Structures are given as C-alpha cells and as structure tokens.
From TrEMBL:
InterPro entries: AA_ABC_transptr_permease_3TM, ArtM/GltK/GlnP/TcyL/YhdX-like, MetI-like, MetI-like_sf. The chain crosses the membrane at residues 63-90, 102-127, 139-157, 246-264. Signal peptide: none annotated. This is Amino acid ABC transporter permease. It is found in: Cell membrane. Its main location: membrane. It is a multi-pass membrane protein.
Length: 274
C-alpha cells in the first residue's frame, strides 16, 4: 500500500509577480512610516525652532554670494591641487625607482591616516611658523587649497593607481612593440583609458571635498572668506536658532545632489562601455 503525499498548494503567482508584490508591500510600509512621522510631528513647534523665515531672509543673499561661493572656490582649488599631486604620486608609486615608490607610499599612508582637520591646522599654522616670512599665495584661498588638497591627493593617488593598473597589460606591450617609449605609451595609451575609469570615484572625491571645506574655520577666516558652515555658525551664534544650520545644509545639498546624480550616470555609462 503506497501513501501519497499531498503537494503544497501553489499560489498561482509567477516569480516576477511575487517580486512585484514584495516591492509593493515594502513601498506601502515605507509610505505608512513616513505618513505616521508627518502626522505625529508638531509642525508649529518644529517650524518655530528650525524653519524661521525671518532668519532665512536675513541670511539671503549673503549665504549664496559669500558662503556658497567660497565653498565652491575652496573645493575647486583643493580638487585641482589634489588632482595634480595625486597623479604624480600614482606615477611615483608605480615607478621602478625605489625611492619614488617609498616616498609615494609613505605620503599616502601618512595623509590617509591623519585626520583632515589636523592636516589643515598643521598647514595653516605649522608651515608659516617653520619658515619665517612665508605666506601662501592667494592668502586664505591658497592656504585652504594646500590644506585640503594634500589629504585629498593621498586618496586620489590610490584611485589613479588602480585606474592605471586596470588598463589591460596587452595594450602596453603592443604599444612598446610598435616602438613607443614608456612615457609616450603612458601618455597616449594608458592615461586616457585610466582617466575614463577613475572619473566616477574622482567625482565622489569631489563630493567629499565639498563637505571637508567645512573645516576651513580652523584657519581663522574673515567675514569675506566664510564658507557655508562658518557662515551658518556665525548666524547661529547671533540668533540662537538652529535655522541657519538648516539653511547651510540645504545649500550643501544643492551642491552634492547634482554631483551624486552625475556619479551614477558616469557609472552607468562606464558599465555599458565595458
């Protein structure tokens, strides 16, 4: 006598339908949580503390013309400095000459291990004290460029190194077989491909530099050289309200969100190219 086991009843849904149903349930739960937060929030009290329109009006337009503009200038200067130094360090780290590799490795390990705030402080006050009479070209802007750039260069060096090593070795060997020198091969074959590979992580580094510009307060900036955080903090001290910090955060998002979207587009384009 044989016993028959009953087969489990099937739901009648395909795998795609079950996945779609699961996503729908997740969206529903997320919307329910958001709705609950919105309903339970005491908006009049929250607005009176964090969203005071009178303080926002007092901050305009200087939060844009001074804070936002200086943040962009500091970021751009530091990025250019880090780009040049980081590429040089990457080439040194890949060099066949031992002292070049040792120096580049020591630089990268040191500046990746020391907080950016400490580095900026050492650059701003340590260099002028070590070299009497020295002043940075461009004043505060030059000081910030070096202070933020030396740390970012250490990270960019590793990014460049990884990008250069990702270029197929066969292309380098083919170029050398055709009689190209090593420098010309690097300049015309390797670096153009490496730059395409490292564009997304370099854009991420740019986003980090935007936020690292908030450390500029340690160099003793004046009112005309305030960046977003220092500008917002100054208003916070005068108004005793967190509204200036909210305004500063929105300005940071106005910079970083488009950059984040750019990173995603570049990553998708690179994935298709591969």
């Amino acid at each position: 006598m044989t016993t028959q086991t009953a087969e489990p009843a099937r739901s009648g849904l395909s795998r795609r339908q079950r996945a779609r149903l699961g996503r729908g349930a997740q969206y529903a739960i997320g919307l329910a949580v958001v709705a609950l937060i919105l309903v339970k929030t005491d908006w009049p009290t929250f607005s009176a503390a964090f969203l005071r329109s009178d303080i926002f009006q007092r901050m305009m337009p200087r939060v844009i013309t001074i804070g936002l503009v200086n943040t962009l200038i500091y970021t751009a200067l530091a990025f250019v400095f880090a780009f040049v130094v980081g590429l040089l360090l990457a080439m040194m780290k890949l060099s066949s000459i031992g002292p070049y590799r040792w120096f580049a490795t020591a630089y990268v390990e040191f500046f990746r291990g020391v907080p950016a705030l400490v580095v900026l402080f050492m650059v701003a006050y340590g260099i002028p004290n070590a070299f009497a009479g020295f002043s940075f070209p461009g004043g505060t802007y030059g000081m910030v460029m070096v202070g933020l750039g030396v740390t970012a260069a250490a990270y960019m060096a590793e990014t460049f190194r990884a990008g250069i090593q990702a270029v197929p070795r066969g292309q380098v060997e083919a170029a050398r077989t055709l009689g190209m020198s090593s420098s010309r091969t690097m300049r015309t074959i390797v670096l153009p491909q490496a730059f395409r590979i490292v564009i997304p992580p370099l854009t991420n580094e740019l986003i980090l530099l935007v936020k690292d510009s908030s450390l500029v307060y340690v160099v003793g900036v004046t009112a005309s050289t305030y960046e977003l955080t220092k500008f917002s903090q100054d208003f916070l001290n005068r108004t005793v309200s967190p509204t200036p910090l909210i305004v500063g955060a929105v300005c940071y998002l106005a910079i970083t969100l488009p950059l984040s979207m750019l990173v995603r587009q570049l990553e998708r384009r690179y994935a298709k190219a591969r």
